[in-house]
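Page 47, continued from p. 46.
Same chain as before, 458 aa.
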Amino acid sequence: MDCKVKDMSLAEYGRKEINLAENEMPGLIALREKYSRQQPLKGARITGSLHMTVQTAVLIETLVKLGAEVRWASCNIFSTQDHAAAAMAESGIPVFAWKGETLEEYWWCTLQALSFPQGKGPDLIVDDGGDATLFIHKAVEYSRRKKSDITNNKDLKIIYELIKNSQLNWAEIASNLKGVSEETTTGVHRLYQMQERSELLFPAINVNDSVTKSKFDNLYGCRESLADGIKRGTDIMVAGKIVVICGYGDVGKGCAQSMRGFGARVIITEIDPICALQAAMEGYKVEKLENVLSEGDIFVTATGNRDVIRVEHMQKMKDKAIVCNIGHFDNEIQVDQLYEYSGVKKTNIKPQVDLITFEEGNSIILLSEGRLVNLGNATGHPSFVMSNSFSNQVLAQLELWQNRYEIGVYRLPKIIDEEVARLHLDKLGVKLTELTEEQSEYIGVPKEGPYKPEYYRY
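Result:
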């Protein structure tokens, strides 16, 4: 069997949960009903690098029902739900994912997802964080000898070793790729950086900045799943605690609402004056991290940046403060530097919960080793909000497969955003008001939409 998962005996359990999730994912089910007969993705080879969860299984099976040939890996070493991976493997999907991968295993899985039979690569990529995209770009650089394989970066060391032993023609794979659709803020940031440096090798659709993704998944998803991760990991009472949230973008806003809803006193740290003003106008205290280290009971990073919480910060936190991250990568918190710091002792309490004790005797509780707390310590966002995000992914894949794009980073048009939202209204019992002809003419908006200009900020 062309797959590698932890335990195939979990497949039946996984299938039961997938069936339940489908009931909460009306957008994906509607797309199946609309397109499955037409098979618009027939012939498309799709690589997925996205958290292998129950909700992702519904996305995978939607792509398959639309005609695609799919290979899949997770985009995080802790985020795979093993029963979901087993269910996919049992149904014949080549899945390479299990919870608790090493870095070497993680990148090996990514390579397997990119490696189709007969030495072929993907036509399309569904990416989350940009690791599949990164792998191909590094492989092309390596094959052209533009980059040396001498590096101190632990991920790149592994990637270069895998590329060295690979027989695939990476330049050909990159040139044949019709494009990637990117799920998350961090991955989109990478794409724009590559575009600015003229390094991007194939077209990309920025799914993250679709309104029905960023204003729903990032905000409402985090509003529910952050608390889930913290509570499953620690069983802490949030009410009355001081929670410090680093970053007040869409993710940070959802996290702040969540913690306030549980009765926490929330402090925000921000670099952006607009976001800082928004936080202040919502009634949050906005401070520098250095000024609240001794106050916080729980610290959450949600910035997409590196070295936000450093070792010297963690040393000054109150004893048993909880430290976690809900940004895509693990470098928001200086975890590697923490483990290497003189006199530090790491005691595992349970999976993805570690007590880190400093030489002076004080300690912190680190969740998911600084990786995504909502997926490492819990099961991620609820199915309904992921239906929004994944409907955008399916439509982006259709767009890339059916049309030829020049190399660049694109967004889905407003009319598609509105259609994704529309697909989810009946499930919530929402009844839309309709414009009259006179109203439509008066404000210059078509009765069928789009209802807002592209520059409108929701």
